[in-house]
Amino acid sequence: MKLTQLLRSINLKSVLSTMSLNDCVLTGVTNNSQQVRPGYIFVAIRGLTRDAHDFVPQAIGLGAVAIVGEGFTTSENLPVPYITVQNARAALAEIASLLNGNPSEHLKIIGVTGTKGKTTVTWLTHHLLRHSGYKVGLLSTVGYKLADDELHNFAEHFTTPEAPEIQSTLAQMLQEGCTHAVVEASSHALELMRLHKTKFDAAIWTNLAPEHLDFHGDMEGYFSAKRKLIDSAAFAVLNAEDIFAMRLKDHPHTTYGIQVPADWRASHIDEEKSQIVFQVTHPEGEFKATLPMIGIYNVYNALAAIAAAYHLDVSIHKLEEGLGTFAGVPGRMQVIQELPQRVIVDFAHTPESLENALKALRRSTAGRLIVVIGSAGGKRYPGKRAPLGSVATQYADEAIFTEEDSRDTPLGQILSDMMRGADEAGRSNFILIPDRYEAIRHAITAAKDGDTVLLAGKGPEQTLERANETIPWDEASIAQKILAEKNE
Questions:
Q1: Residue 10, domain extent
Q2: 276 with 203, same domain?
Q3: More exposed terminus of the chain, fewer Cβ within 10 Å: N or C?
Q4: What average pLDDT does the segment 258-277 reach?
Q5: What pTM does this model have?
């Protein structure tokens, strides 16, 4: 596509160009100046802490043939066209979609949003569609999958990557023969328009609880960001037990739940050590489901996934079969060892999610329940640190407080906040081991037969962020290594 074609397609206005637009053949678009290649458009976005217009010379030096932004006072001196837009983020998404052939218009796409459960719901929905015979792509915080079902990772760590990565990945899915895609949608991605111009056939809402309020300001701001997915979708799958979800019932929708009436409802729930058995009541009748996961909250996740898959024409028989063959999600209640001591890696990093995880494991733990937990630094909701300390010591027999992406916050301050939560609750069943590797080693080494060790907070993440460094991190592999040493 040439630049003149692009300008006509999205009705943009070029300003103060010193070169012929007809000669500009476009090869890509990015908002990262370091990723510019010859033939790229560079979209200069003004952020909270920096203005990407400062990197325009670097982008041009790397081969950018045009700059897009909301206004640039020195544009008359540029050797390439500067294109003025009202919203640079919207333009980035629109250009990315156009350059990739608007791939979402040729796929059936399910989006998944919510505070908790969205990664599991994304993977489970993907599995159910694949089990039914569809070729399905996946985009989630754990990585992405194309038609071959192999897990890949983006260079940058985002729950939802930037618009150019999203659109190019959707285009890859389409090229490889995918007919469907399941996309995990974070509140940041929705607010920052990374999913703008992505067409959703259905959207799943799991729940809404306090998180990311440093970015969204308050719960209404958080809700406003999340609802963008529902507003953009043709159909919604709503948690009937979530008060925020029930504010979205003006959309075409179906509901799911356990405690209240819903279109898809679970009952007679029996939690076993490595699976959950329950009855599903649905629009066509009932069936008995077996889900090889731990925790009642995963029943909610299963209901959301089967309701969405059913909307996209997966049969009840295939849904029943598919639930029983789900292999789980890396870093989400991932069982590293079952016996003689059970070791599990999970992403639980909020007080509520940690409480849910520990309660679930308590019901199937014969011995002691040991948890390794930290809390993130920076502006990532510091108010959760003390509650995490309280929850960990309330529901585990022993808690080990350690690091978890401390960033620019002194680790001692984070651990002190967590310790305060336990102290104020009158509990002393915790120890401090600042180094996370050593904390994991201590927990696994101390575990006896029948005990469960929960490594919480990091899940599938591939890095550990400290004040002056970011190091590679694979919690599951670390646990396996320490277990091998213990079992020698």
A1: 3-99
A2: yes
A3: C
A4: 93
A5: 0.85
